[in-house]
Design brief:
By secondary structure, the chain is mainly alpha-helical. It is 83% helix and 0% strand. The radius of gyration is 15 Å and the shape is elongated.
Length: 120
Amino acid sequence: MQNEEKDLMPRTKMFARRIIQLCVALPRNNTVAQVLGKQSLRSGTSVGANYRKANRARSKAEFISKIGDCLKEADETLYWLELLSDENIIAAARLRLLIAEADELVAIFTTISKRARGNV
């Protein structure tokens, strides 16, 4: 495993923690905020869990599959965060760093997936 990939374990956990903090701060009386928050909570915390599974994979095919799950969940989280911003539920400036992190995770998992499949 490369060093940058090892660094993803704490990075994805910190991402999950930041998503949790965001969801806790969402207005309780706003149904849209709660639905988007729950969706981002589910997908955002799933990134790290799937990455841990990928690192315990029993085969290359299983690794590729789990990395694909990481990519899918990171991209989905990015979508929910963008909606929270677009709908002015959370100020865009407040979400900027979290959206940037989700975007970086998408790029990282895309690269890992391509390398694992031999497409790079």
